[in-house]
Amino acid sequence: MGFIFSKSMNENMKNQQEFMLMNARLQLERQLMMQNEMRERQMAMQIAWSREFLKYFGTFFGIVATSLTAGAIKRKKPAFLFPIIPLGFVLTYQYDLGYGTLLQRMKGEAENILETEKSKLQLPKGMITFESLEKARREQSKFFIDK
Questions:
Q1: Which residue, 34, 44, 60, 61, has most beta carbons within 10 Å?
Q2: Distance between CA atoms of 83 and 64, rounded to whole angstroms?
Q3: Are the C-beta atoms of 84 and 71 separated by less than 8 Å?
């Protein structure tokens, strides 16, 4: 009789463990999906911000370029045109970020760094562990208790 009872308990325990494992996996999948959704929303906001900034900066660039060109022609000083060059670089960068392939190129470079330059990504003193956090917590709590 005890054998039957323990066999039933073992089956219940096994079923409970399987359920807990499935539940933990489901929770992890949901967390990963939520984190990815948040990342995608943040990236969309960054691209939208860049496009909006491009509208304002493009207008500013157009007015400045027209004014500087008119000033250079009127005063016969080509030096007035030099500020157009760096402003043009900023305009090109913002256009590339908002509508071009800059994000794809950055993603490709990031993937290359992850694959070939792992050593540059390591944290000082290595990964944080539970033991190191507990040690720091204990030291801090001793510090506050002593005072």
A1: 61
A2: 9
A3: no
- The yes-or-no verdict on residue 3 having pLDDT over 80 is no
Q: Identify the burial level of 44 via C-beta atoms within 10 angstroms of its C-beta, where 0-12 means exposed, 13-18 middle and 19 or more buried.
A: exposed
**Helix (H, G, I), strand (E, B), or coil: what is residue 1?**
coil
In the chain, what is the straight-line distance between the N-terminal and C-terminal CA atoms, in Å?
A: 61
Quickly count: other Cβ atoms within 10 Å of residue 97's Cβ: 19
Q: Which of 52, 89, 81 lies closest to 64 in space, CA to CA? A: 81
Tokens 């900034």 identify what position? 53
Q: CB under 8 Å to 90, separation ≥6 — which residues? A: 57, 61
Contact 120, 113 (CB under 8 A): yes
The verdict on pTM exceeding 0.90 is no
What's the half-sphere exposure (Cβ side, CA atoms, 13 Å) at 114? 6
